[in-house]
Amino acid sequence: MKKLLITGASGFLGWHLCQLAKQEWEIYGTYLSHPLEIPGIKMLKVNLTDFRELQRIFSDVKPTAVIHTAAHSQPNFCQTHPEESHEINVTASCNIAGLCADNSIPCAFTSTDLVFDGLNAPYRESDSVCPINLYGEQKAIAEAGMLERYPMTAICRMPLMFGAATPTAKSFIQPFIQTLKAEKELNLFIDEFRTPVSGKTAAKGLLLALEKVNSIIHLGGKERISRYDFGKILVEIFQLPATKLQSCRQQDVKMSAARPADVSLDSSKAFALGYEPLSLRKELQELIIE
Predict the structure, then answer these.
(1) How much is the pLDDT for 234?
(2) Between 20 and 30 A from 23 (CA), which of 46, 119, 129, 243?
(3) Distance CA 258, CA 188 (A)
(4) Whose CA is closest to 166, among 26, 41, 53, 257?
(5) Separation between Cα atoms, residue 128 and residue 116, nearest integer Å
(6) Backbone φ and ψ of 74, nearest 5°
(7) Residue 208 parent element (H or E)
């Protein structure tokens, strides 16, 4: 069986990816600070920022392909911890691309819609990157560095993702649901737009990109939506008390990292390859069934 090395298997996306990929691959998943067991998957504790450890994993596992999802992905954390986040977001990513190049194996990397400034959406793969926070900047540097080391890398720009909580990670909807159930006020932006997808759909997109893409690809959803309007759909589908759902603007909330207004992705290139996000309502309804 082909061996797939998934970094960040204890993260939200990594966990969903492991669930889906284990049907066709022998999976080796890495984690650092959140140990967990995933049935049918060999979990390895690895510090990806230690190049020797990284080399050892490649020589021990001998992967047939790699999907690199491990990252410090909270923009506010990256803004306040620039060196620590750079190590994993940039240095480790470029090293992984180099090792994949040395072994001539497919490599997919999860980048972000936050490589854009939010002024000219929807964004295509060919549009210039222009991040306005450090997280977006680190991902943009990693994209360029990985493609330089290994031009065959599939750089997958991911949108906002939601889905069922995993044993060690939540998506942004869990705190939303909790807040509304407790009948506490939930303030959501009316002036921040994204093209969200579920973790499950994102995982399908990554496996497709690993197989078919050797450049940059956008894996956004089919609907451009504000956080506030997403909250309204959430209220309707999960039948939550709606009275405490309030609208606000980005300028009303003090954050360490600046946030772009509209980083909607044009993902028609991925759709043409067979990437098929469902409507947001369908995606959310499936979470209730689970």
Answers:
(1) 95
(2) 46
(3) 16
(4) 41
(5) 8
(6) -90, 115
(7) helix 199-212
Per-residue pLDDT band for 34 (boundaries 50, 70, 90) equals confident
State the Cα angle at 170 between 22 and 217, rounded to 5°.
Answer: 60
Q: Does residue 131 have a cis bond before it (omega within 30 degrees)?
A: no
Evaluate whether 213 touches 203 at the Cβ level (below 8 Å). Answer: no
Q: Is the pLDDT of residue 1 over 90?
A: no
Q: How far apart are CA 72 and CA 57, in angstroms?
A: 21
Torsion over CA: 32, 34, 35, 37 (sign): negative
Backbone dihedral angles phi then psi of residue 175, each to the nearest 5 degrees: -65, -35
Whole-angstrom Cα distance, residue 62 to residue 162? 32
Strand order in the sheet with 154-158: 42-45, 26-31, 3-7, 65-68, 107-112, 154-158, 216-218
pLDDT, tens digit, 9 for 90 and up, residues 247-264: 999 999 999 999 999 999
